[in-house]
Amino acid sequence: MKKLFHGLFPVLVTTAGFVGLVIVLINEIGNVRRASRAAAERELESRTALVRESLIRPLSRSDFPAVYTIGESCEADGYRLTVQSGNGRGTFFDSRRKSDDHDFLFSTAQVDAFTIRLGVPKASVYAAAKRGRLGLLLAGLSGAAGLLLLFLSFRRVRAKLHELEEMKRLEAFRRTFIADVSHEIKTPLTGILGCVELLQGGDALPSDQRSRLLAMLKTESTRLNTLAQGILSLAKLEHSGETSIALEASDLSSIATTAIERTQTKAEAAGVKLTLSVPTDPVNVRCNPGLVEEAVVNLIENALRHSQSPEVIVTVKANALTVEDHGIGLSAEDKPHVFERFWRADASRTSDTGGSGLGLAIVKEIVRVNDADITLDTQPGRGCRFTITFAKAR
Predict the structure, then answer these.
(1) Which of 39, 66, 71, 363 is the most buried (most CB within 10 A)?
(2) Correct CATH for 130-237 of 3.40.50.300, 1.10.460.10, 1.10.287.130, 3.30.300.30
């Protein structure tokens, strides 16, 4: 919102200035209109006096041709001459019979029993004001067009700046991601190459040592494969905005049960008890069951691998699923980094406990594409509780 205000501020200032200028111009046009009328009335009174002097003799002598001549002369100068009888009801002469009185500004004078009316077209009186209105209209249109172009220009600038910021962010992410991937790949690759070199040059190796090297080779290969699969899974989830993820009504209890079954063997090998708590009735939520099951498996395996807890509890309640342990927990400083790629609470960032360091990052992306939310409650020495909240199925 703040960025939008900063982007629009110059446009708002320019608009305010333009509106103020329009108000000043409208006032000036009114002044021009009033001044034009006053000048026209003074000029009309002077001409009317001259025409009256010219008509005194022709009217007193009933010299009608002379009256017509004077009328034609007035008309040639752009004026309208009307001579009426004394009571004003009959028109003796009108140089523009088809003209409407409302279109003229008149001045009157008396010659014996006749009333002389000399008029000037209002169009000529207010010509300057009319040109001002036209100019204001054109200025308004050009000003509006200018403001629109200015606004579009600011939008383009903002879009370009946003694009540059996004490119910088992506470039920084790319460098960090490559550095992290290189770091994570280095350990298993070093182990694999070391085992291969020893096996290649060790024809006389004892069988027990050979078996140990082959076991290490399998372990490091598995770790490298897990890392590659994790990277591919993240890439697929992060680009899910370009494709649609099918969400459907699914029983959260059934998903949790399947996830427990998949991780039971690992839990037994680690000496950890898995506990499942689900309601008797189905808990239908809107999600992609396959992806959610993968997220729950990752949360359970994360607890098995890092929590040092004797028990991991999976609970389904309402439209939420919780994976909880009673292990070592996390500090307040570590908590914000939990869902980052390759982050580990262990400052040495080693992979001694197994895993790729991508499990929770994948969980976060799965939660995102399922239109769900995930929260973490943790304290040092009191374990971690991850809660995923879903939208209820309609």
Answers:
(1) 363
(2) 1.10.287.130
By CB atoms closer than 10 A (0-12, 13-18, 19+), residue 346 is exposed
Q: For 90-99, 231-240, 253-262, 270-279, which range has the lowest pLDDT when averaged over its residues?
A: 231-240
Buried b (16+ CB within 10 A) or exposed e, 149-176: eebeebeeeeeeeeeeeeeeeeeeeeee
Distance of CA 139 to the CA centre of its chain: 31
Q: Say if residue 391's pLDDT is above 70.
A: yes
CB 272, CB 235: distance < 8 Å: no
The answer to whether the CB of 29 falls within 8 A of the CB of 136 is yes
Phi, psi values for residue 74, rounded to 5°: -65, -40
Across the beta sheet with 384-389, the strand order is 273-277, 311-317, 320-325, 384-389, 373-378
- In this prediction, residue 347 carries a pLDDT of 47
Q: Report pLDDT digits (tens) over 143-195.
A: 656 555 655 665 675 677 677 777 777 676 666 666 666 666 676 777 788 77
Kindly give the residue spans of alpha helices, DSSP state H, lying in 239-358: 252-270, 289-306
Domain 246-392 in the same topology as domain 130-237: no
Question: Tokens 């910021």 belong to which residue?
Answer: 165
Out of 1-15, 66-80, 106-120, 350-364, which region has the weakest mean confidence (pLDDT)? 1-15
**What are the structure tokens assigned to 354, written together?**
């197994």
CATH code of 246-392, in short, is 3.30.565.10
The band of 344, judged by pLDDT with boundaries at 50, 70 and 90, is: low
SS3 203: coil
Euclidean distance between CA atoms 236 and 361, whole angstroms: 13
Model-level pTM?
Answer: 0.51
Is the Cβ–Cβ distance between 369 and 245 less than 8 Å? yes
Domain edges within the chain: 2-125, 130-237, 246-392
End-to-end distance of the chain based on CA atoms, in angstroms? 34
Around 384, how many Cα atoms within 13 Å sit in the side-chain half-sphere? 26
